[in-house]
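ok trying again, last paste got cut off:
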Amino acid sequence: MSMIRDLRAAVRPSSRVPLRKDSGAYDATRDPASASAVIDCAVYRDGRRVRTEAPLSPHEAMRRVRRDGGFVWMGLHEPTEDEFAGIAREFGLHPLAVEDAVVAHQRPKLERYDDSLFTVFKTVHYVDHDELTANSEVVESGEVMCFTGRDFVITVRHGGKGSLRALRHRLQDDPELLLKGPSAVLHAIADHVVDGYIAVADAVQDDIDEVETEVFSPGRKGSPRGTDAGRIYQLKREVLEFKRAVSPLLRPMQLLSERPMRLVDPDIQKYFRDVADHLARVQEQVIGFDELLNSILQANLAQASVAQNEDMRKITSWAAIVAVPTMMCGVYGMNFDHMPELHWRFGYPMVLGVTVAICFGIHRTLKRNGWL
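nice, full thing came through this time. structure:
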């Protein structure tokens, strides 16, 4: 089917197409920081958004779906427990899933209840910076929870990034996809999140390449000690946060792609395999980042240790040279009457000459051995 062949192309990022004024859009001008947690609530029937004169309440949206068919897609941003309680009752959501959606800070997962699926995605956004420092924030994470039923999709977003508005607009421009119902929306969200992972992985790779080049580039003797270690450790912490978003999601995507589910259309299920494949590739990249940063950090610490050893050898060498005149001066400073050549006219020049000769010989020996 042409619709299925075009599935991935439709949910890929493209230029935003604003909703028409008569489309009943509830999210065209709403600010996520506004008093209400509901960003958008709409009914989709026959692959198209049902136009309304005013924004729909959850109760009115479900009433229309139960009467005329279709499904509801509701988007919320950081709802409180009280705000979400009525929605949970209206859609019959499981209390444990509701608690996870409100509290947030959940691990990516897929949970199946009687009449719904609860999926948690961690969104990751790359933070642009002019220069990577020991305090730079490289990745910023958020969360998208998705309740999927036979006739509804509820997305709950936490964090300032990861808006699904552009994704909703793209799906509304392709009615054939929305004909597949809530599972098509779930796939589009999963694909959108994983595409974000790929973009972040490419950007993090550039940061790692920059740090690696600086650590192993020649001529670093003049660089301050410990400058790179803090940057490497900070980058490693950011990669670890990235890894916490990617790795746990692989199993849910495999379940959605391999195990038949009543709430997932078989035609859509095939495309979860593609999402799982892309996610596995990103996971391999992130694991590689972690191992590479370990190697870079160890190499940097080894270089610092070698530099410290070189400094200690130089200090020891000069201490050995200075020990000779110190010993000579110490011997002749004891003020004894009967000392070698004490009253000889050339005794003083002789002692100085012997001291200089010994110091010069030690210096040449140490320099030849690479200590100076």
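cool. The chain has twelve helices and seven strands. Confidence is low (pLDDT under 50) at residues 1-34.
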